[in-house]
Amino acid sequence: MFEHMNNIPLLNHDSKIPLHLQAEEQLRKLITENHFREGDLFPKEMDLARRWGISRNTLRQAMGNLVNDGLLERKKRMGTTVRKKMITTNLNSWLSFTHEMEDKGVSFKDLINKVSFIKSNQSISKYLQIDAGSSVLRLERVRGTGRNPMVYFESFFHPRIGLTGKEDFKRPLYEMLDESFHIVPVYSQEEIRALVANEKISDLLKIKKGVPVLERKRLVLDSGRRPIEFNNCYYRSDWFTYNIEIKLPG
Question: In this predicted model, what pLDDT tens digit does every residue of 184-202 receive, in sequence order?
């Protein structure tokens, strides 16, 4: 349990940001930055409300969003406990992030969905097997639950597909490619590593610069092993783990 209520930052009652949003952000930060451990009993509502000079209804509104995001759990006669829910993504479930998360009961939405055309650099050209400087479509998506960003995707598509940028990229990506362009992904080549968040990643995921993130590079191929998409993905390490199952031969 958080031992010193005085260590919890005060809210700004003169700010234009509603008090329940300020309270939610402060509580979320205390949990994700490990001031609380899994299973810790949360401070009493009365104590928190008094500390911040807000009503208990305002506090409950803030805590309700954290309960919905899986960070807090309310139990009768026990109070509210910390439930820092980690989300696991699997190497053998790569076809649709949307469908994979839905299967886990986690509802994600796009917080940013941006399409642009850029000139391919050496790295993109190498993966997509095209000439450097070729025009490629870039899709950038930040996804999360509620207002909380959890993962950033940056995808580059082979010009052969014929994407115009007017497609509905809010749909599951590979479902759209199959139905609209008869492009079916069959193979996925993965590179996974840990790195520290640069300024761009920290801004997009709302984390401190230098905080560890999980980077996954993915090259998606069709049945003829022709490149379809090169994808960089950055997961918040306080929310995601990566899981792989390996079967020994014989």
Answer: 888 888 888 999 999 999 9
Q: How much helix, strand and coil, in percent to the nearest 5, is found in the chain?
A: 30, 30, 40
**Class of the 5-82 domain?**
mainly alpha
Question: What pLDDT digit, counting tens, does each position of 226-247 carry?
Answer: 999 999 999 988 777 766 666 5
CB 138 within 8 A of CB 156: yes
17 DSSP assignment: S
Task: Give the separation between CA 105 and CA 112, rounded to whole angstroms.
Answer: 22
Task: Give residue-wise pLDDT tens across range 102-115.
Answer: 555 556 788 999 99
How is the chain split into domains, by residue range? Answer: 5-82, 87-243
The 10s digit of each residue's pLDDT in 130-148 is 999 999 999 999 988 767 7
Burial 1-10 (b: 16+ CB within 10 A, else e): ebeeeeebee
Task: Based on DSSP, count helices (H) and strands (E) in the chain, helices before strands.
Answer: 7, 10
**Better-predicted residue by pLDDT, 93 or 34:** 34
Residue 91, pLDDT score: 46
Query: How far, in Å, CA of 193 to CA of 131, rounded?
Result: 27
As given in the structure block, the two tokens for residue 49 are 């409300």
Interatomic CA distance for residues 99 and 101, integer angstroms: 5
Among candidate residues 138, 143, 145, 148, the one with its CA nearest the CA of residue 112: 143
Q: Provide the CATH topology of domain 87-243.
A: Chorismate lyase (3.40.1410)
Q: Can you tell me the distance from the alpha carbon of 171 to that of 84, in angstroms, rounded to the nearest whole number?
A: 29
